[in-house]
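Hi Prof. W.,

I finally got the PEP-CTERM sorting domain-containing protein prediction working! I wasn't sure whether to trim anything, so I left the full sequence exactly as given:
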Amino acid sequence: MTPSRWIKHCIVALGCALGMACASAQTVTLTFDNIQDLGPYPESWTESGFSVTSLEPNGGHLHSATDALLLHSREGSQPYRFQRIDGSNFGFVAFDYFGGDSVFVSDSGATFTILGDQPLATFTLPSDFQNVSYIDWFMPNPGDLSSPDPQWGQIDNVVMNISPVPEPGQTAMLGLGLACMLLVARRRRS
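And this is what came out:
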């Protein structure tokens, strides 16, 4: 094998390796379909490799709507935490929302705030919400907690990006292929 041909083969192999390493992120949408089947106060929700739980220390719970997730501004269940079940990082991309004031905070401290009563709209998060390990959603308590009318917010169609993880078998096969190419080139030289 001539040196130029050997270099071409190595470039092709390297291109394949980079293609595997640079695979695009998978997009997952949390739709909360059938969440109401768990009753009005489920302890948690899991879907597409993600979980949503309440961080309220006194036995928090979620509020379910028809195929959507509700949160209120009073004590008892908030904040809600979105995270991957396997603990890996993800990107919090967009969601449909309507309701009162809401705040979304990532583990890195990035915040996204929705103020005032919002009609149903799709919100897109800034790049600060990429490569996070969790997102907390809460609603600030308006005024005195003794107020009988808490604010409510509803979220649905939450779009997440998941970075692909290379399979160990693919990496091993690539290494074996490169080793074989080097061995063949060496034998042909001698």
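The chain has a mean pLDDT of 82. Does that look reasonable to you?

Thanks,
D.
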